[in-house]
Amino acid sequence: PEQEKLPEGLEEVHAMLAEHVRKNFKSADGLQLSSDDTDVISPVALASVLTDIENKSEIDRPTLRSSMIYLPNSSDEKAYDEPVTPVVGKAPSLTVTEDFLTDPELSPESVQLRQRLKKEEEGLNTDPLPISDMADSERFLISLAVPTLKDKNLEALWNKHSRSDEMPFSFEPPADQIIENRHSSGVATQLVLTKSSDGQGGEKAEYLMVVHDSKGNDGKGLTLVTGTTEVSEKLQAALESQGVVYVNRDSADAESKIAAVVDKIAAGKDAIDKDNPNPFVHTLLESIVYNFMNPSKSKNVVSPDGNNEAIGDGLSYDLPNNELLFSKNVIDNNERATPEWRQKSKTNLVAVLADRDDYIAKNTGNNLPFVVTDSKDIEQLKHTLKALSNEGKQQSSGQSVG
After folding, report:
1. Each residue of 139-178: pLDDT tens digit?
2. What is the number of other CB atoms lying within 10 angstroms of the CB of residue 305?
3. Neighbours of 339 (CB within 10 A)
4. Where would I find the H helices in 133-273?
5. Which of 279, 272, 311, 312 is nearest to 293 (CA)?
């Protein structure tokens, strides 16, 4: 190790990955790992693997909706020679029925795509993955602080084809474009399922909400991630150096920090969808609420015109400004583009991203989370998504997720 030299620019990355290995090292004999980073992670191996990943022209996708995510290795036995390891990430897919395969409005390409999706979803006879097989949330966050890994992993969170490729519709709503990373603003949202410590010696499901603006930060990219994982000040600073702002939803100032990033992401974007009367922050809110957070029950409340209505297409908790969900009433009064509407929409968006009531985990919605796991079993992973879907449907009976 003393003969190995670290390539310029990788010193901080090397130190951060070595510290991660030390943090996760457990010894029954009270032994400790060397304080010399080159004894923990080979500089040559680190430089080599990052170069290999950077030179990949495309994301590795074992199936249409799965991707390879690159995370730091936590194992003291493997990290020296393999400081970074690929794991599987899987996005949920549509339920492909026989009716969908025979729809006369489908193009031949859409039929072929659906047939492939249907084949991939067959044979789900394994048990769902346990939480212990999910990748650790801190590993995912550390990957976003490493330039090469951040770029590849953010790209891997979204598929190259969309639901519109599978559906015979010509119009794709702006909120759907955002969730599929196809919106002209460059903004995309994703819900990532990992695991973290439950504070009692066990593990829990950890949902990370990702809002990525590829055009933000003067074209360098700006990413907001919210979760409940505690991170060090060093990791926080390393993330921010890469244009990634991580906000712990349990922190007292979570709302103010989230609001500041939302302001930067939304700046100047209201005019992008000319036919959409919504301010951009409301479209962004819709992409999260209606795709990730639809519970099985709707909530009846009194609308501004005095009628008793079910709001939010299943949104069953109180946003600070629930009256904004009655879009027909607001459209008729041409009020959507006003500064007041924009501010109220932003307040709602910040409330959702801060998630004080653990609403994300309880209501994973129509689009299940992007699961990141150490398991290489794609079939088992697809079954996990099905199990999560069933748990989401059972929320109304009081059952919990994870």
Report:
1. 999 999 999 999 999 998 987 655 555 554 445 788 888 9
2. 10
3. 8
4. 137-143, 147-156, 174-179, 233-241, 254-266
5. 312
